[in-house]
Each structure stands twice: as C-alpha cells, then as structure tokens.
Amino acid sequence: MHFSRLPVDDELEIRSLFARYGHLADAGDPNFVQLFTDDATWTRLNSPPASMGGSGLPPETIQGHARLGALMEDVMKKKFNQRMHHQMTDFYVVPGANANDAMGHARALITDWRDGAGKIAMFGKYDVRFRRTPIGWRISDVKVRVLPSQE
Fold first, then answer.
1. What are phi and psi of 44, to 5 degrees?
2. Domain total for the chain?
3. Neighbour count for residue 54 (Cβ, 10 Å)
4. pLDDT tens-digit readout, 36-58
C-alpha cells in the first residue's frame, strides 16, 4: 500500500502547528487564533449531552479570528475554566488538491479536571484542512465530531 505524502518540511511545519492547537485551546490563549487563516471555519458537527460523552454545546460553525477568539474566552475560559484538556492522537496529514493545501486527521481524548481528578469526558474525531499562506501553513477549516455519533 502506498500513501501520498507531503514534502518533509511541510509535514513538520503542519505537525508543529497542529500540536499547538490543543495547548493553546486548553489555555484559552488568545494566540489560538494565529493558528488559523483569517477566513477559517471551525465546526462542531454534533454534540451529545455530557451524560453521553459530549460537551452539551450546540452544533455550530464559526468563522474568522474574532469568533475563534470568542470561542476561547466563552467556552475554554468561562464555561470550562481551562480545566478541559485535549490529548490529540493518531494525527496524520496528506496532500490536498494542490501544493498549498493539505488535509489532516486526528483523534482527541478530552479530559475534564473541573471536579478534581481528571476523567475522560469526550472522544472526538478531527478533520483539519491546512493552507499555505505567505507566513506559513495555517488551519483553514476544522470539523469536529464527538462520539457517540449518529453518523
């Protein structure tokens, strides 16, 4: 079996960029928005209730740096008190439609530390589109599906 791959420097830059995603999100860091293109979208495709392993937040798509920044402030800082943490696993990236486009896939265990000892709160699947920009690779689109899922 043969897998398409990116040039090594591109893959390393994308991997480093995506590694920062969970760290900055968990901290509610305003620099989170710098990982994204100006027109980026972030989509929560589904959201089971917390009792079934979801966040209870509604499915939604947000777009642009201002809305991504609000996500950090309203959800990661205020709702989750910076006590939800992403452990991104099984990440791989493949070439996209052209040399300036790539697609990444990851799984995420999200742990909840709000009530003391941490516990697994959610398990998600991430599909992430990356675009090369004049300042380097950036995330242009994220789609997150939380299990259990109807699809």
1. -95, 105
2. 1
3. 21
4. 999 999 999 987 777 766 667 78
Confidence bin at 127 (pLDDT 50/70/90): very high
Would you say 139 and 35 are in contact if contact means Cβ atoms under 8 Å apart?
Answer: yes
Query: What is residue 93's three-state secondary structure?
Result: strand
- Contact of 129 with 138, CB cutoff 8 Å: no
- Residue at 3 is within a domain: no
Residue 63 lies in a domain: yes
Is residue 100 in some structural domain?
yes
Which tokens in the block code for residue 76?
């990661």
Q: What does each C-alpha distance from 16 to 23, 39, 72, 78, 109 come to in angstroms?
A: 11, 21, 20, 27, 19
Asked if 112 contacts 84 with a C-beta cutoff of 8 angstroms, the reply is yes
Where do runs of H (alpha helix) occur along the chain?
8-27, 65-71
pTM, entire model: 0.89
HSE-CB at 26 with a 13 A cutoff on CA atoms is 18
